[in-house]
## 1
Amino acid sequence: MNLKNIFENIPEQIPEEVLEEVFRAEHFRIERIISRGHSTGNGEWYDQGHDEWMIVLRGSAGLLFEGDHTAVMLKPGDYINIPAHRKHRVEWTDPREETVWLAIHY
């Protein structure tokens, strides 16, 4: 048994968003994402070939879906399911503290 804590080993400096695989099985994987002031590059959209369920555990973020004019604000405890090929982008994450996400790709 390998006990870990989702809030441990968060780097002091985060020049780029941190993506860490927490668990993988045949049909899904769980990923920890750590952001601080990060966003998706200008003009870029995520267009994933699989569904993704995500929750913000700490911090906050704005998620924009293609065709929408306003970002969905996520705070601790908020979760969302993103269907495959639903284009989206991270508009912003809190620049003052880490935003810790947990994403399940299935």
Note: The chain has no helices and eight strands.
## 2
Amino acid sequence: MPGKGRRLLVTGAAGFMGSHLVDALVAEGHTVFGVDDMSGGYWRNIHPQSEFTVLDLRHREATDAYLRKVQPEIIFHMAADATEGRSQFTPLSSTERNYLAYLNVLVPAIREGMRKMVLISSMSVYGAQSPPFHEDMPRQPEDIYAIAKAAMERATEILAEVHGFQYTIIRPHNVYGERQNIADPYRNVIGIFINRLLAGKPFFIYGDGEQKRAFSHIDDFTPYTVRAGFDDVANGQIFNIGPREEYTINEVARLVLKHFGYDPDNPPPEVKPIYHPPRPKEVKEAYCTLDKAQRLLGYRTTVSLDEGIRRMVAWAKELGPQPMRYLKDGLELITENTPATWVKQMM
């Protein structure tokens, strides 16, 4: 393990965003510890020069013991049950895996002298306000996942004021790219589309597909997360990180079909998208300003959505189609409003 640099902890280190962050931090010569419960992560993502431990952050005593042992200077909290749409049907696990798990990390970290927390939050905290969202807008969560993220943000602010550590809060824009979990049937729209096409099957679009989102390739996210961790200008700040350009889900679908070699205007019947009823509480338009990240972190978009999807499709073709990883214990709430694609495990 590298001996120079800072002593850092990345939670969710075997996941998509966390593993890219570990790579970047190791490359800078830091001593990097990583934890993950492997519910959505993969062993193939773990950097061999990091010190990795399997840990479920819901387990308070085990997490407390781990923080006492590692005593990181800076924590990048990437671990999340980032299933915004599913959270209305798994409200208990969403709260446990997000808000409660975060407090299980934050409290002993403060006790052990942590200097800074970099909290990866979510643009979902803006709710259904009029986009583009900017960091000065109030938190108005519209779903259970967003409630947890808003609570995590506010708890960080309060405890930092009381106990004197630094923090930065980052709200990503639908990050996608190589290593994303394409086997998750509940989230990662681009990954789901790609995985279905890898299997020669059509993908599903909820509602009319005219929902607008901004998407950020992992290469346009990781460097600024690193910078936020070490640059004092980021202390006490909240940042939207990601591009300003928004796309409809239908436009995303066309790009994925294109990079599989299909005519997006006339795909073969066996892969033609299938439309399902809208998911409850799904915000119609969600995209953000990036002025603050540009000004303070030097953010700039370098990977277009077209290029990013091309790269992700090429990576996924090497990986091959993946069986979907449905919840072992199922959904907590199944009613007439639960998406049939989840209840019947149609993907």
Note: The mean pLDDT is 95.
## 3
Amino acid sequence: MVCDRYADGERTGKRAIYYHSGLDIGGSEGLVEVIAATDGLVVSVGETVLDGHKKDTPVSPRYDVVYMLDGRGWYYRYSHLKEIDESIVPGRVVSRGERIGLLGKEGGSGGWSHLHFEIKSRQPSGKWGTQEGYAFLWEAYQREYKPHVIAVARPHHVIFTDETVTLDGSRSWSKSGKIAGYEWRFDDGTVVKTPQVQRTYGRPGRYSEILRVTDDEGNLSYDFGVVIVVDRENADRAIPSIHPNFYPTTGIRAGDPITFKVRTFNTTAGKEVWDFGDGSNKVEVQSDGNAVKLAPDGYASTTHTYEKPGDYVVSVTRTNEHGVTAIGRLHIHVDAKLE
């Protein structure tokens, strides 16, 4: 689950150029285990750095960070950890898949619960630079979960009111090599069955447009195209944003309790309202609106159980004092109960 954090421009309500190295992987604080992406030597845990790795390396110690070094000479950074496993100590060699700790929002997370994962390597210049890791994550996901189809509604967009944006699902992937169907669904009831669609937004807000992709065998996948719409007449007003997540994310069966967490940003007004997509009553919760970034109880939590197997699109909203709404969505796949 990719973290719902995009740019300084989203948090301020202004347009901005923002460079973020590494990858942010969102998840439920304190519930998701972080494991080692590769075999490696632990060179830094919190403020403690192994001798020989304090100078001329990319290691930047912090209480919530672990660094590992692999056989290529690449450094791996795991940041914002809520908990670091007591077995992870400088000088220890760790095998791929071993537990490092628990995902959190510590350090410079901005209040979003996520893992900041980053690889540093020597560049042709001789300096340390970021080794792009997205392709590695994509390949690892495919090998681990063997999906038939993956919907891709990226990139997300930041625009002014009354501007037009193109939402693009053509980057979606199918194991069979063929996407049989695209379907965009919008809050106003509009349904468009093409990979690309143009939309104009007259009202400010954070929109999360639903993309469903199917392959030629009927397998399906969902993704959500986020459009942050800034009020042209009130460009200095921050647009509320929202980070919903759930746990567990796989292996869910009918009758299993699921933990849902949410935190809204850029406003402390209003409450979050969950619609679990199964016809059940809506549920209200109230996060702190990121009033204190590292507050242990900053996310509001609730649980829900699905009685029937299926694919559900979950929505959660919160509206600020100016009537501007942030919408977040999740896709939940539920299998049948074991007999």
Note: The two ends are 30 Å apart (CA to CA).
## 4
Amino acid sequence: MTATAKPGIVPANPNFSSGPCAKHPGWSLQNLTDAPLGRSHRHKIGKAKLQKAIDLTREILGVPTDWRIGIVPASDTGAVEMALWSLLGARGVDVLAWESFGSGWATDITKQLKLPDVRIMEAAYGELPDLAAVDFTRDVIFTWNGTTSGVRVPNGDWIPADREGLTICDATSAAFAQELPFDKLDVVTFSWQKVLGGEAAHGMLILSPRAVERLETYKPAWPLPKIFRMTKGGKLIEGIFVGETINTPSMLCVEDYIDALEWAQAVGGLKGLVGRADRNAAVIADWVAKTPWVDFLARVPETRSNTSVCLVIADPAVAALDKAGQAAFAKSMVTALDKEGVAYDIGAYRDAPSGLRIWAGATVEASDLEKLMPWLDWAFASAKAALA
């Protein structure tokens, strides 16, 4: 095969987007025929479906029985904002930001809530902030897995069990693919359209007993919109956490989430999901190890994501281009792969360094990633030839 000859085999599923992510193997619209469409979500049928989604979430993720799980509006963003607006202000805040979403939470806390005592602990794309410098007498906000940088915290060992503040964790591209130590996390949020490939607009909010205590004993100085309110008369609105949602959910999306959760059970639950994601990430890592023109954006192997795998083009000729030139080179590769129908939506996030971002979560098949790797070489060779 010449340097620019096309590979002969294509992935069966070219959907490698980092959100919304690929549907699970075997997914079909026929799987959703039990959705109670046209019925009230407040009827016992609708409530039962919502409760089932919560119960399966608890079972698969291993959420402790005294942690509340709620289905909330506006995806992971809505879940995080509910936590920030409802819980912050009682203590000083440390915000960890090493990619775009963490930076977004820092902006909300400093520019919208305008809290007076905030430390923003930043790191460049590809790196983590100094976790040892975090002060857990304060509330701490961080992403477990940096979706736009491909950098994750390696574990929860840096979080003390006897912390005084709350830990608020945006886990949207980590839940169902990485082990989350719930005893170290007071608030956990994620969205359906990430690791399990669910449909958009719904978020999950998981609260520890410590977070519930904060909600019931602390009242923020600012008014809360109805969509954020989790207490009434100083007590938690328990209905939110048994399927009585704040606003109207899509029962079709709920059915789709249940279908994904049942698939997760069939592949071995959390252990099976983590194993699938790890094997997928290993396919990419093995290829990177023998491919000189590419490298991981995450510099430390222990911090590399097994879901949102971010790659940079390390070829000297491309690296010598200015920022715009590097971005154009990467875009030409992404466009070529899209045109061939072998990989959709794998460009780096708009705020991140130019390169590729390949979703390797559990709904992706390792065999499809194995077929994709030669196509990446082809796309690079084609773009490099055009550059010359």
Note: DSSP finds nine helices and 14 strands in the chain.
